[in-house]
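sorry for the late reply, my laptop died twice this morning and i had to redo everyting from scratch. anyway the thing you sent over, i finally got around to it. pasting the sequence first so we're on the same page, its 109 residues, then the predicted structure underneath. double check i copied it right bc i was rushing
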Amino acid sequence: MKIGHLIVPAAGMEEQVAFYTSLGLAVKFRDGDRYAALTDGTTVIGLADETQQPVAGRTMPGIEVDDLDALAALLSAGEPVTGPHERRLVVRDPAGNPLVLYERLPAQP
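ok and here's the structure:
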């Protein structure tokens, strides 16, 4: 388990990518105007449009896990959702803050 990224809502992807790169972050990955991953080499900020935001309009941590199904069962948290790059499950901490638990999908040939 590791903190994989911090998901930040992006209304204007070009403007937000330009802002974060002006701060010195590098674009690690980009999926058009849907998602962009920026990094300082250690931490990743994931800019997500409305179709990629697990909870609309909320900034939240994404935690990469080894066995999403086991955690879903342990937390009685429902069924994971499969997206284009990962399987994910939104859960809430005891204070009600949302976070995403996710498992990467295998790379496509």
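The longest strand covers residues 2-9.
thats about all i looked at so far, will dig more tmrw
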